[in-house]
């Protein structure tokens, strides 16, 4: 036995001498070929483009590598201790090669007959990661050793450790420990605990195998090993080691409800930065700060999805997404479920599951993570037809059916379906145009199309306020009485086929004020007013708000929203009413910095001045009073009912056949636009939805959060307006001097008592611009396709 030990020891010594000899020869041959490592003194790895909210919440990241450069002075001591303990305990003692560690590794591997222990130092790993490949050859090992010596002679230990901590790959697309901390724990590196530091320090050896999101068991084993090494080296006490072992880790969930969803915003910024800086934008570590407010963005995302899912609950069930055969054997069942759900990922809080059993009383389903769910009672009510034995194959919910589940208002599971409908929401500050929230669709992964900026849709009755704004300049006032009675227009008036428009409910109320007409979104009144002021004048007027002339032809249907707008355009246009008559351009980026924080670009918010004026201040004021009455007494009453604020203004909109629904509204510090519709236009709902039932709840859901700490604003009258008997007038269009009535000379029904005009006797009608000729069309020629609704 002694002889074997002596022989073994001799072999080890001979091996070490052989290695040293080989290294000596390599130094002579290879050293002249080594790269210049002095550049690492100013270490600049590839850093991604990062996009932040105004309150510095990360909302987007684009680049070849997910990495955040952290100076060694800002790295927590507990992490440095953990890494050194497990990767290179003699790091601060050796000169790049740890000969004692090398000898120990050789002995261990010889005695155990396998390559059980490595001997690469942190310095060697830096040399390999920065300059070399991972191939296991003697040549690469020689280069690695020589580079390690060169690094040690050029850089300080802290500089080498800093490069290592920022360069190493740690799985989950993360390079460096700062990125890994965010990726695995959702927190900045400075906030990690001892247990979390040990988990991260266990990743470099095998980032795929030890990934806690993929293989929590192996990750836990490695973490315990690191904690043990930290205790052995004296980095932590026995008590601290025990506490670290017992600490429960909270890993970041990919579907984390606290995550701020701003994918459409991040993508808009990425495109803008790419156009400005080129491909280098993905590697130079630029940081882009936006006007977005994280809490507002989260509220917009949540409200949009809730409104869409509420709508989806009212729609017929379209059946499971797929039905697969499931084995009865439990071990085979797990694999079958994983395979079945591989192409059906969760969509936020709308989760995918495979049905294990189904009856009209209960459905049992399993998710990809192994959770088993029981759905019963109200959670099954909309799907009872699909649970019937007689259900058609494409609608039937059976064992193997892939369904969607979500939690209802009371927290119980319910079966649902991914929506086909789309939606958009945008909010901005009308005082400077800063975009505070933007959600371009129900789900970015499902559709990258940004409906806020790219979807051209008909605005319906949300466009009426711009017609009334134009009318104010022609002598009309909120108190002007207009006849709500049937109209028929010939092709000269419409620019197309003859047209017999209708009110939303097909009824007519007779004489009413413009204020009441806007509150109830009466089509006939809007058309009579537009006919009186002239379509070309109105077309010119709307361009003051930023609308395109060519998308709003100068024909009468324009008044009912037959043109095309984007939600972003509507936000900018309603901002003119909200801020007192100024036109501001929406903007998103406030500043761009390099990775060290040096400002490369800054976008300061504009200061409102008369050069930005779009409409007279008094026009904006009177329109605000009208839009306020829509909220308090009209089609948007639910907004006041929900928010209980007197400083809310807005207008509902629903286009023909309920193809698009809108709500455009504001408080003096915030404009919000909500839209819902199908990408391939079709009616919303079996019976037809309205802006009040579908888009308004999205708006109020957002404003509940956005206005929570905002004081109620008072409406102050500017110069140039006067209040007479509770009605606002321009001071040069007071009663007797402006347009008192319109269309009363025509035959008309008597208005119901509750709709008759009250107050003092109105002055006699005032002559206005001649109206286009009205010629009744033959019944068979009347085209009702432009029957625009409120």
From TrEMBL:
User: SUPFAM superfamilies recorded for this chain?
Assistant: beta-lactamase/transpeptidase-like, Lysozyme-like
Query: What are the entry keywords?
Result: Antibiotic resistance, Carboxypeptidase, Cell inner membrane, Cell membrane, Cell shape, Cell wall biogenesis/degradation, Glycosyltransferase, Hydrolase, Membrane, Multifunctional enzyme, Peptidoglycan synthesis, Protease, Signal-anchor, Transferase, Transmembrane, Transmembrane helix
Q: Name one Pfam family in it.
A: Transgly
Q: How does it sit in the membrane?
A: Single-pass type II membrane protein
Q: Where is the Glycosyl transferase family domain?
A: 58-230
Q: In which pathway does it act?
A: Cell wall biogenesis; peptidoglycan biosynthesis
* Protein name, as recorded: Penicillin-binding protein 1A
Q: What organism is recorded for this protein?
A: Variovorax robiniae
